[in-house]
């Protein structure tokens, strides 16, 4: 849909205001929607803005449009996310309604299975893939999907049988089968699959993250090349004054407000802020980004010489920039499950508040780097572990899986971001 320059500017400014969470974001979105009532992106943002202020009618318009356009993928994804964050156990009800109307719509079924898995229902996703395959869906595509979700659900024998049915070089098989092999503790067969992915996509951070685990599991000497001393995680005291930290803490607690656990993210018993933290009009955040960039540049300057084969060191001389930032608030009994960021080269954790030291729980809230994700069920220790220290920033290569130990009592308030090569 082509817009006039005026309408395009109105739309862009409204969405930018939503992403920056400005006070007038909702007003801007509603004004833009009056001009462009059929714009799906504006509708999704408006629903999110209304939900953030606890408007009971926040999602009504989104539901109404989906009733008329049941094949709108982005709308279903947004509605499911909003409902999940609002604690609605029927977060997929609208999508299930659409699938009854459009039972042969493959993209809707793929989204449905993904959102099931994101919500912790991997076995149901696998069962859905099997049902669709029996109904005539493309056989190999849906064997792969069933294998993926079966593996996530811990149904390893089923996954083994499904992978054996797929052609050796079936698109997308290698990465999923590599995870399956690692779940079995078979690093040698996992490496065969991972090598194929790395050769095809040298910048695939997830493949390198699994490779890091695989090479440790098999004592492969290449692990020292992948994680040399110059790339080891570091914890840096940014030496912020108390006033800045206090102001930042107050702002972050306010921004978390009534947020809930986001769908498909790593937070458990906690919340994550909406939008890009770095776009917010806040003096402390603006100043903090300068500290972050300085730390990233210092970390990068210590890297080994440029290595064109290495997933990180190949960018030794490239200028870096911060991608979207966000804040995570984890409460008592909460934690981050081990995960990886696939859009960055350098990842981070900056602590604004931390639980008080407790001799009975000396490692509560600790950041663990290199701990395999739970679905792999591998007994590998982290390559590094840091206690949360207020005012300290941890930087590490993005190919390291990372999570936190559970908090027994207190809260962990942190800011995270990724750094990546500046695109020109």
Structure explained in plain terms:
There is one protein chain. With 424 residues, this protein is an alpha+beta fold. It is built from 16 helices and nine strands. Strands 1-7-4-9-3-2 form a six-stranded antiparallel β-sheet. The relative contact order is 0.10.
| Distance separating the two termini | 26 Å
The structural class is alpha+beta
Spans of at least 5 consecutive residues whose pLDDT stays below 50 are: none
| Percent of residues in helices | 40-55%
The share of residues in extended strands comes to 5-15%
- Which geometry do the CA atoms define? globular
> What's the total helix number?
16
What does this entry show, briefly?
47% of the residues lie in helices and 14% in strands.
Describe this protein with a few key phrases.
alpha+beta, 47% helix, 3-stranded antiparallel β-sheet, globular
Tell me the layout of helices and strands:
Elements: H1 5-20, H2 25-35, H3 40-52, H4 60-68, H5 73-85, H6 93-101, H7 106-118, H8 122-134, H9 139-152, H10 156-165, H11 173-183, H12 187-200, H13 205-217, H14 222-226, E1 234-237, H15 242-256, E2 267-272, H16 283-301, E3 320-336, E4 346-353, E5 367-369, E6 384-386, E7 392-397, E8 402-404, E9 412-421
Antiparallel strand pairs: 1-7, 2-3, 3-9, 4-7, 4-9, 5-6, 5-8
């Amino acid at each position: 849909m082509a817009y006039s320059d005026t309408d395009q500017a109105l739309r862009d400014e409204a969405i930018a205001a939503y992403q920056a969470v400005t006070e007038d974001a909702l007003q801007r979105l509603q004004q833009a929607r009056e001009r462009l009532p059929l714009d799906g992106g504006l509708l999704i943002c408006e629903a999110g803005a209304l939900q953030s202020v606890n408007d009971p009618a926040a999602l009504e318009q989104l539901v109404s449009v989906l009733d008329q356009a049941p094949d709108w993928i982005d709308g279903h994804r947004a509605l499911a996310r909003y409902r999940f964050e609002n604690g609605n156990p029927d977060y997929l009800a609208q999508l299930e309604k659409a699938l009854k109307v459009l039972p042969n719509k493959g993209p809707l079924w793929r989204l449905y299975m993904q959102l099931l898995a994101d919500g912790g229902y991997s076995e149901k996703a696998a069962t859905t893939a099997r049902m669709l395959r029996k109904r005539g869906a493309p056989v190999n595509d849906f064997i792969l999907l069933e294998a993926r979700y079966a593996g996530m659900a811990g149904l390893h024998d089923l996954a083994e049988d499904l992978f054996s049915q797929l052609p050796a070089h079936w698109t997308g098989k290698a990465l999923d089968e590599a995870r399956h092999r690692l779940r079995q503790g078979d690093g040698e067969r996992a490496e065969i699959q991972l090598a194929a992915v790395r050769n095809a996509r040298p910048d695939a951070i997830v493949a390198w993250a699994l490779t890091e685990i695989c090479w440790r599991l098999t004592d492969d000497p290449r692990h020292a090349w992948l994680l040399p001393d110059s790339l080891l995680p570091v914890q840096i005291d940014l030496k912020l004054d108390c006033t800045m930290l206090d102001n930042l803490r107050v702002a972050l607690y306010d921004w978390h407000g009534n947020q809930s656990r986001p769908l498909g993210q790593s937070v458990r018993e906690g919340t994550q802020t909406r939008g890009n933290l770095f776009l917010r009009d806040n003096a402390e955040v603006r100043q903090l980004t300068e500290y972050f960039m300085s730390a990233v540049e210092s970390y990068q300057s210590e890297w080994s010489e440029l290595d064109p084969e290495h997933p990180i060191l190949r960018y030794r001389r490239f200028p870096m920039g911060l991608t979207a930032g966000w804040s995570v608030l984890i409460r008592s009994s909460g934690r981050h499950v081990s995960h990886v960021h696939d859009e960055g080269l350098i990842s981070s954790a900056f602590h604004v508040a931390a639980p008080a030291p407790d001799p009975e729980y000396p490692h509560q809230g600790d950041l663990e780097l290199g701990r395999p994700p739970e679905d792999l069920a591998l007994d590998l220790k982290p390559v590094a572990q840091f206690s949360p220290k207020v005012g300290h920033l941890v930087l590490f290569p993005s190919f390291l899986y990372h999570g936190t130990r559970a908090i027994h009592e207190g809260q962990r308030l942190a800011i995270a971001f990724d750094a990546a090569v500046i695109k020109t």
